[in-house]
């Protein structure tokens, strides 16, 4: 496994996802506040949900990165890299809205307590946090810690995969926001 290629691919994925999320903050108020006919969230609520989910995932990513860096002193990183293969197939449904049942915890539901510009700034900071963790674990150390991810039965995933999951989660909701926008246009 070329670990440097994996890290670069995750950085690229993050940039594309976060750039696309950021463009939604430029939408007009009608698009941002449109209530879809299925009773789902408005675009602004989805943006807040992305921030909240990132917030909680980043807590796990931070803990995982610290543990991975500690494990670097005890485990054979070269062996881990040699024996690792990234299973993209395992993750592909995560980025697709409606691909599977996803029951989110209540603390990840939007409450409407943040202004749009606050959400935008917080999400931008979260993007940079992800990049900082990838820079910290630039030699493959992120493979040295695995944490269980219950969503869609992913099981134990490493820190890089958690960061990739975070990026895929944003993509999942980009599709949802596009559906909202297309319904706004029809009305």
UniProtKB/TrEMBL annotation:
* Domain annotation DinB-like: ranges: 28-177
InterPro entries cross-referenced by the UniProt entry? DinB-like, DinB/YfiT-like
The UniProt entry, under Pfam families, shows: DinB_2
From which residue to which does any coiled coil extend? none
Give the residue range of the signal peptide. Answer: none
Protein's name according to its UniProt entry: DinB-like domain-containing protein
Q: Which organism is it from?
A: Chryseobacterium luteum
């Amino acid at each position: 496994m070329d670990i440097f290629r994996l890290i670069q691919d995750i950085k690229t994925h993050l940039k594309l996802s976060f750039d696309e999320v950021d463009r939604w903050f430029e939408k007009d108020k009608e698009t941002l506040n449109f209530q879809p006919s299925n009773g789902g969230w408005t675009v602004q609520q989805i943006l807040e949900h992305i921030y909240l989910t990132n917030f909680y995932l980043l807590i796990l990513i931070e803990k995982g990165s610290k543990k991975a860096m500690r494990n670097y002193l005890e485990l054979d990183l070269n062996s881990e890299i040699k024996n690792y293969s990234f299973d993209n197939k395992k993750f592909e449904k995560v980025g697709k809205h409606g691909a599977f049942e996803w029951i989110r915890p209540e603390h990840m539901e939007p409450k409407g307590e943040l202004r749009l510009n606050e959400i935008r700034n917080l999400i931008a900071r979260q993007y940079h946090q992800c990049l900082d963790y990838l820079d910290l674990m630039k030699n493959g150390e992120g493979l040295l810690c695995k944490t269980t991810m219950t969503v869609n039965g992913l099981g134990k995933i490493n820190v890089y995969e958690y960061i990739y999951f975070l990026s895929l989660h944003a993509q999942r909701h980009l599709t949802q926001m596009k559906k909202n926008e297309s319904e706004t246009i029809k009305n």
